[in-house]
Amino acid sequence: MTKLFVGLALGLMGLKAIAVLTASMALKDLAIDMTLMACMLVTYACAIFMSPSLSVATLLASDDPAVEAENEARYCEKCDCIKPEHYHHCSVCQRCVSHMDHHCPWTSNCVGLRTKKVFILFLFYTSASCLFSATILMGSKSLFASFITVLSFGIGGLLGGYGCFHLYLLAQGKTTLDFLAGRQGNGLGFWCNFQVYFGTEWWLYPVPVLPPSVRLGLVMRSDDERAGLNVT
Q1: What residue intervals traverse the membrane (predicted)?
Q2: What is the mean pLDDT of residues 41-60?
Q3: Tag placement on the chain: N or C end, fewer CB within 10 Å?
Q4: Closest by CA position to 61, among listed 77, 79, 81, 78
Q5: Is residue 183 predicted with pLDDT exceeding 80?
Q6: Can you tell me the distance from the alpha carbon of 94 to that of 208, in angstroms, rounded to the nearest whole number?
Q7: 64 φψ region: left (φ > 0), alpha (ψ -120 to 50), beta (else)
Q8: Which of these is catalytic: 39, 46, 96, 104?
Q9: Do 37 and 17 touch, CB atoms closer than 8 A?
Q10: Is 104 a catalytic residue?
Q11: What percent of the chain stands above pLDDT 70?
Q12: Nearest-angstrom CA–CA distance, 210 and 204
């Protein structure tokens, strides 16, 4: 079923591309639109194909004593294995995911420790791409272009708002699951939580490249320890 959502998303992207490429516009506007669309497609591919976290087996094989100390008595009966701290079982993926936020049907993948950055980037790049396309297509006499304009404004506004919601959750140190369950955040503030997922090198913030701590699955510590964690 989730593959249908992916197909629908790609179909909508294709329709928007056709509307833009067949419209009469300045070369500069076309270049900007194609750049935003490329960023949207790259981050979407990352959100689909990137593993949301290290597997439990890989994590348990770690030689890091800090990680070993955290692998205590939680057990996942569905996976029939130890469930480390901050791991949550996804009933769709049928696996345990670190810092799981939610399972996204539009990417057919979980939003977790290793996919949160690319998912947020995808939301904002898609929003920017849709809103920019809608702006340059406004006033077109083509019925198809007018339809894409309205659709792009709607999708762009919706995903932009959803992206802001995820930044709010990031500031609170919560996942969507925490928010729905009414749990408290970790109290570390926006910047510390942002750097956990995006790193400290600002020029890499808009690029779907993960900081080493996330790429290696080492952001496993308690909130007190994370407050002093070097996340570069």
Answers
A1: 35-61, 118-138, 144-170
A2: 82
A3: N
A4: 81
A5: yes
A6: 26
A7: beta
A8: 104
A9: yes
A10: yes
A11: 82
A12: 9
